[in-house]
Design goal:
Helix content: under 10%
Shape: flat
Number of strands: 72
Largest sheet: 6 strands, mixed
Strand order of the largest sheet: 43-45-41-39-49-50
Number of helices: 3
Distance between the termini: 95 Å
Radius of gyration: 35 Å
Structural class: mainly beta
Strand content: over 45%
């Protein structure tokens, strides 16, 4: 039978569109060529194998990536997984085997999925997934491209494999017995592979029994009861027959427990509670009421101790971006038959009530109603008691639980007459409401079809909530488990942090670790997922930074959902690698302090602008500082400023130039929303210059809030890649040259010795013959040593040439952010307008009278003081401080130019109004002045 269960085709459709657009011929969805280069940064796309058995040591190779120079370690998100570089003997020395490591997995490491990163000359890489299991593992044996040459695998084992190239098809065989319940589990998308895996199983009679794709989080999973004794065949390929080094997968054939879903899907943080596991091969389990494709599921009761901290997220499997706002932890059932597949158990928000099918449950608030749309036309309902004029929020977690569904919320007010007869008044019918917008700008898509509804109860009494899937008439599945959460509004937030490879703005995105050079800055995008109307200021900070690395203030203000944090390394920073945490703190409306640690995020593959990236939730956030000096660094001398509406901010900016760099640096402001009504000034700091003054103007109609902005630099840099490698190669060359000369000298000495024996007059013929034979052996040995030394010298010469070629100066584009500027926009007490005579023409030694008019706003009624502050670069222009009393709105300001006043059009000139309005408030009005002789 061929079928695809519970198929979610979003990933497949995206790939097929690209495939068809490419004309089906030579097709690559991986690593589109970058438009412009950037300073090297370690990046990995694949490693092999992508997992191992606990208690074992496995050889792991980084098989695809870029800037993989001098990889010296692997870093895992679990401390019980250790890696050392594999070495081999070379000329009597132990030398590293390129990109290859021996990974030891401790017996105490729980089965599950972890992050692995590579570290090398250019820092720590982006993460890739690494699976820890309890079954024996091995690699596929090529060739295995036909049914006649499968790679044999034992029952209860895992094969690590790669689709080596386009059109590659892999075959595997395993022994089976009639009646055995077997799981065939293919991990591809769940370990960051671009592969859309299709798996087929054939029986001993060569008949195809099943074909699967995208049945479990974009990967195939097959549960099969074997029909006869014999050898079974498994066929694996990519749906579009793509292939390459990144097309890795893990194929497991086993009789271990497999969990399809857990009920309830959530539990109380810090409590030990009972859960029912539903799946196959569950030791001690009994048949449940559920079946999938006519295959009955087993169920078993387990007791689980939940972690106490309710605001964390540790996904069981690969976490999709739209799941990042959920809270939960990874759970693996360690049964007598082995460990199960990892699942996520979520943290409940209140008492949990399970749908019982036969009646409408009553929920106490806050609470969770959990159920499943197990069949077509399934609808579930529950009731709760509401109070008049009280607000209630209802949201359903379906897609955010990793389930393919599109839930709908229907709310009715229950009205009873005097006889108790019920009628229902419809209040709302709510479908997908985009609980969160696409905060990651197509790189980390936080949108979801899960519905959210906030309403105010019109009267005291009972309310009914009915739930269904939008496509309930055509689909239903036991795996469609949901959580419906109802509560009085509880404003809160979660954070996600996305490091991005430095590149030009609006050109897409690529995977990245956080790597800083000495005297360098790195940008991280922060997304705030806000709950129940949360609209307070979130202050962002970083924990765990090493000495010499800092992060200036960053904030997500009311009305905003994103910010950018800039990490900066001093020139004195030492090489370092380790985990860090980004933390957001806020004060809720009820004065409660909230602290939330950001969930890490990662892009999986490079993607062009306006194309949605494949991305996932990462399991760690890691920083490295490398021992290389950045060619330049842009520093904004102003870190934070409070500005009233109608205020000019002048930002002195400096470019610190190093290592001989002295090119022009183009700078453009980023991070200010288009509708903020804050204007910025972009400039280029010319070649040979280091300083420039930038103007930011907060207009009168600027939206109050907190804005984090920075200057994005674009510059051509002459860069030498790893010049130290040249020095090391020359050392080896010198050693090889000396060995060659020594070997040549030894050969010459051996030949001379033979000649002397031949000329000797004091030796018999027999003695000469014996000694000459011995000398011939010495010559032969010395000659071999010369040839070996000569080969080593030529290899060393080539190594020097290659190193010099690699280190030759090359022009590359560099995009580095400046240190950030945080602008806190506050309401203004007045607006200020100017009437400047003669267009601002002002002769030296003369003056003009400028009429200033204010309009008091925001209930301000006090006096105002006016001044003429001089910006840097302007001198000799003055105005006396004048006052506008509380009962006046106009005043004349005489502005004078001294004989030595700065000539020409004066930049950045303003008249400044100062008032006492919740502290000192400053409002500026630009004024054009041109000083002439």
């Amino acid at each position: 039978m061929t079928h695809t269960r519970f198929f979610d085709g979003r990933r497949l459709v995206a790939k097929l569109v690209c495939f068809l657009a490419a004309g089906i011929g030579t097709f690559s969805l991986i690593n589109p060529p970058a438009a412009e280069a950037q300073l090297p940064q370690t990046t990995i796309y694949a490693l092999f194998p992508s997992g191992g058995q606990k208690g074992q040591t496995v050889e792991v190779r980084v098989t695809d990536g870029k800037d993989l120079d001098e990889l010296d370690g692997l870093w895992f998100s679990h401390p019980g997984i250790k890696a050392v570089t594999k070495t081999q003997d070379s000329n009597g020395k132990k030398v590293p085997v390129a990109n290859t490591f021996l990974v030891t997995i401790g017996n105490d490491v729980p089965a599950g999925v972890y992050d692995v990163r590579a570290h090398g000359l250019f820092g720590i890489s982006n993460p890739r997934s690494f699976v820890v299991g309890d079954l024996p593992e091995k690699a596929e044996a090529e060739p295995n491209n036909t049914p006649a040459q499968p790679t044999a695998m034992a029952m209860d084992s895992v094969i690590n494999a790669t689709l080596q190239s386009a059109t590659d098809v892999d075959y595997f065989s395993f022994p089976g017995k009639k009646g055995e319940k077997v799981s065939v589990n293919c991990r591809a998308a769940r370990i960051d592979s671009p592969m859309v895996a299709l798996v087929e199983v054939y029986g001993p009679d060569q008949r195809r029994l099943v074909s699967e794709r995208d049945t479990f989080r974009h990967d195939p999973y097959i549960n099969l009861t074997l029909t006869q004794d014999g050898t079974y065949l498994v066929k694996v390929h990519d749906l579009t027959y793509s292939g390459g080094a990144q097309y890795i997968y893990r194929l497991g054939v086993h009789k271990k427990p497999h969990i399809e879903f857990i009920m309830p899907p959530s539990g109380t943080p810090g409590a030990t509670e009972q859960f029912t596991l539903y799946g196959y091969n569950l030791p001690g389990g009994k048949l449940s009421d559920w079946s999938i494709d006519d295959k009955p599921l087993q169920e078993v009761q387990v007791s689980v101790a939940l972690p106490a901290k309710a605001t964390t997220l540790e996904m069981g499997e690969q976490g999709f971006p739209h799941e990042v706002s959920a809270d939960g932890f990874s759970y693996v059932w360690n049964s007598p038959a082995g460990s199960s597949n990892p699942m996520t158990i979520y943290f409940a928000d209140g008492k949990i009530i399970r749908d019982e099918q036969t009646k409408e449950e009553t929920l106490t608030l806050p609470g969770e109603f959990v159920g499943q749309f197990e069949a077509k036309n399934d609808t579930d309902a529950f009731r709760f008691q509401g109070k008049a004029k009280q607000k209630y929020s209802i949201e359903v977690f379906g897609q955010r639980n990793g389930i393919v569904m599109d839930p709908v919320i229907v709310v009715d007010q229950v009205i009873k007459d005097k006889d108790g007869k019920e009628t229902f008044k419809r209040i709302a019918n709510v479908g997908a409401t985009s609980v969160f917008p696409d905060l990651g700008d197509k790189l980390f898509d936080t949108r979801t079809d899960d519905p959210y509804y906030l309403f105010t109860a019109p009267a005291d009494g009972e309310y009914r909530v009915t739930l269904r899937d939008l496509q309930f008439e055509t689909r239903g599945h036991p795996r469609m488990v949901y959580r419906a959460v109802i509560r009085e509004p509880k404003p809160d937030f979660r954070l996600a942090a996305l490091p991005l490879y430095p590149q030009a703005v609006n050109t897409g995105g690529s995977p990245a670790g956080i790597t800083l050079r000495k005297g360098d800055s790195f940008k991280i995008d922060i997304m705030a997922l806000k709950q129940d109307g949360f609209n307070e200021t979130i202050e962002l900070s970083v924990k765990g930074l090493p000495a010499g690395v800092s992060c200036k203030a960053a904030t997500i203000g009311p009305g905003d959902n994103t910010a950018e944090m800039i990490l900066t390394a001093d020139e004195s920073a030492k090489p370092w690698s380790g985990p860090i945490e980004i933390v957001g703190t806020a004060t809720a409306a009820d004065s409660k302090k909230l602290e939330r640690v950001a969930r890490a995020a990662t892009v999986l593959r490079p993607v062009a602008n306006n194309i949605r990236a494949e991305a996932r939730i990462a399991r760690s956030l890691v920083l490295s500082v490398i021992d290389e000096v950045a060619p330049y660094q842009v520093v904004a001398d102003v870190a934070e400023v409070k500005a009233n509406q109608g205020r000019q901010i002048l930002v002195p900016v400096k470019v610190l130039k190093r290592t001989g760099f002295d090119e022009a640096v183009a700078l453009a402001w980023n991070g200010v929303p288009k509708n903020s009504n804050i204007t910025t000034q972009n400039k280029t700091i010319a070649k040979g210059k280091q300083d420039e003054l930038f103007q930011v103007f907060v207009k009168e109609n600027a939206k109050p809030g907190v804005y984090t902005t920075y200057l994005q630099s674009t510059v051509d840099v002459s860069y030498r890649r790893n010049p130290a490698q040249v020095d090391e190669a020359k050392k080896e060359q010198a050693e090889a040259d000396k060995k060659l000369k020594d070997a040549q000298a030894a050969l010459a000495a051996a030949k001379k010795k033979r000649e002397e024996i031949a000329k000797a007059s004091d030796k018999t013929a027999e003695q000469k013959k014996t000694e000459q034979a011995k000398a011939d052996e010495e010559i032969k040995t010395a000659d071999a040593q010369v040839k070996a030394a000569d080969a080593a010298k030529k290899a060393a010469d080539k190594k020097v040439a290659d190193a010099e070629k690699a280190a030759a100066p090359k022009k590359i584009k560099v995009y580095a952010p400046s240190t950030p500027l945080v602008i806190r926009v506050q309401p203004a007490p007045v607006t200020l307008s100017l009437n400047v005579p003669g267009g601002g023409a002002l002769k030296k030694g003369a003056s003009i009278d400028v009429k200033a008019t204010i309009k008091r706003i925001n209930d301000f009624k006090g006096p105002v003081e006016l001044t003429l502050p001089l910006p840097p670069g302007v001198a000799g222009v003055t105005a006396e401080t004048v006052q506008i009393p509380a009962d006046k709105t106009e005043v004349i300001i005489p502005i004078k130019a001294a004989a030595d006043a700065t000539e020409g059009d004066l930049a950045n000139m303003v008249v400044r109004a100062k008032a006492d309005f919740s502290g000192e408030a400053l409002v500026d009005a630009p004024i054009k002045l041109k000083v002439t002789k």
